[in-house]
Amino acid sequence: MKIVVASSEAIPFAKTGGLADVASALSKALADAGHEVSLFLPCYPQSIAKRGLNLDDFELCPEKVTISVGSKEVEARLRKTGFPGSSATVYLVEQARYFDRPELYHEGGRDYQDNCERFIFFSRAVMEFTKKLNLSPDIIHANDWQTGLIPALLNIEYEDQPGFEKTAAVYTIHNMAFQGQYWHWDMLLTGIDWKYFNRHQMEFFGQLNLLKTGIVFSDMVTTVSPTYAKEIRTEQFGYGLHGVLDSHADRLVGILNGVDTTDWNPEIDSHIAANYSAQTVTEGKPRCKAALQERMGLPQKPDVPLLGAISRMTDQKGFSLILDAAENLLATDVQLVILGTGDPYHETSFSELARRFPDKVSTLIGFDEILAHQIEAGLDIFLMPSQFEPCGLNQMYSLIYGTVPIVHEVGGLADSVVDASDTNLENGTANGFSFWHFDATVLYRQMRRAIDMYNDKPTWQQLMQNGMTRDWSWKHSAQNYLSVYQQALSFRANSTESVSASS
Question: Could you write out the three-class secondary structure of 226-248?
């Protein structure tokens, strides 16, 4: 197939969350499976420079397009590059007015006021460059609200244009909490007829909703885990769009994200103190633990359980639960490592915890990619009690590195972590600890369960082995996406035939 993927971020070019990991890893996995993949991203010069890349190393393409955004005519240029060892092509859409900024979406805690305009421009630029480059895609795969306009453009403006006659739209929701809602007059920026601003298509309680737009105009809709696909059809997790999703249930599929094992793999990871496999984990992991304790300024105690978390420090990620459980936890012989940034309250609270318990707690406010690898390799127990989690990647990184996770049983956490119940231990599926009731006391009980099992070395080693020996790579997930692409093409073909027959 010829596949165009559109995303507002992708590693190593720009990243704020899991979308960046998925966009890159899926594109590479599809290309590895023999498909022709073109990944379109905005070109963020400041982000690219921060990540140690040189924009001048990317080929400047001769093609230019002029995009109408409301009453403005805005020119776009294109740069071309790729991923090492992959045939996937990466196109970066250049427009300094919109994308040459310190951050991707917001600055100083406030969203950029022209975000709607920026990503309408990007969506239109993707379609125009796809046409100008004669990519003739079978599939256009859009992601999240930033590219929600693309399926609408395909259906309303491009469907009958050369190169798009059989193109199907697939749309992936990575997090329902972010919907791209803007005041109704921003509909003018889209260039799409006002008749589509109605409750069945682009309107949502009087506002333009770009996530809803992507859902209703796509041939297939995916989200990032099977459990999350069920959850977002409920009032609790649907953020007002549960009815829309329920009406599209026959075209909604949950696919658990994979892991880019060229980056996250303890056998080849250059960032950790010792490489190890499932066969050598009992030799390599203790060395990684000692190195992490040393780096974080903690006493090197090989037999003391080392717990930790890497995350945005927010209530949604369960940091209020971790904080409340920490007082009881730290009364026992344990150590705790925290890496992240987020709510000032949590940053201050965990920094204060480290000052109160210098031999037990180490907190680093910020983000460090190399340290993240070292934490995954050095911890015994990973804490991920998210209030909701569409997929999550850190729990899978933990499983690959032989670090046993404790998770709240939602979304992708429920689909990847199997609780160490007696039954699951007996049948050999257990790989971590999970709980349903979102409560600090319940989390503390799970911590105690895990610590007790940590001291039962044969059982603990079996948990580690169960996590490490499962295939968490993108190979399986990519095959599931290819199946969805085929369904989208069939749906599109049937829809075209129905229209032809009725006319």
Answer: HHHHHHCCCHHHHCCCHHHHHHC
Answer yes or no: is pLDDT of 330 > 70: yes
- Position 262 confidence tier, pLDDT thresholds 50, 70, 90: confident
Find out whether 230 and 238 touch, Cβ atoms under 8 Å: no
Cα separations (Å) of 217 from 54, 169, 432? 37, 8, 39
Q: How far apart are CA 456 and CA 226, in angstroms?
A: 33
SS3 176: coil
> CA-CA distances (angstroms) from residue 194 to 179, 189, 210?
20, 11, 14
Tell me 33's DSSP state.
T
Distance set, CA 364 to CA 11, 337, 455 (Å): 23, 8, 28
Residue whose structure tokens are 């359980």: 305
With bands split at pLDDT 50, 70 and 90, how would you rate the model's confidence at 497?
Answer: low
How distant is the alpha carbon of residue 298 from its chain centre?
Answer: 31
How many angstroms separate the most distant Cα atoms in the chain? Answer: 77
* Residue 498 in this model has a pLDDT that exceeds 80: no
pTM of the model: 0.91
Return d(Cα 72, Cα 148) in angstroms, integer.
21
179 token code pair:
């919907």
The answer to whether the CB of 209 falls within 8 A of the CB of 169 is: no
The whole-angstrom separation of Cα 498 and Cα 503 is 9
Cβ-Cβ contacts under 8 Å for 22 (sequence gap 6 or more): 143, 172, 174, 224, 257
Average pLDDT over residues 460-487: 96
Could you give the percent of the chain with pLDDT greater than 90? 94
Q: How far is CA 102 from CA 146, 161, 307, in A?
A: 18, 37, 34
Q: What is the pLDDT of residues 383-401, one digit of tens each?
A: 999 999 999 999 999 999 9
Six-digit token pair at 470? 């499962």
Query: Strand ranges (DSSP E) for 135-284?
Result: 139-143, 168-173, 181-182, 203-204, 207-209, 220-223, 252-254
Residues 6+ apart with CB under 8 A from 103: 47
Closest CA to 202 of 219, 220, 215, 221: 215
DSSP reduced 3-state for 341? strand
Q: Which two tokens stand for residue 408?
A: 């709240």
pLDDT digits 0-9 by tens, 88-114: 999 999 999 999 999 999 998 899 999
| CA–CA separation, 9 and 1 (whole Å) | 23
Question: What is each CA distance from 349 to 208, 307, 323, 365, in whole angstroms?
Answer: 38, 17, 8, 11
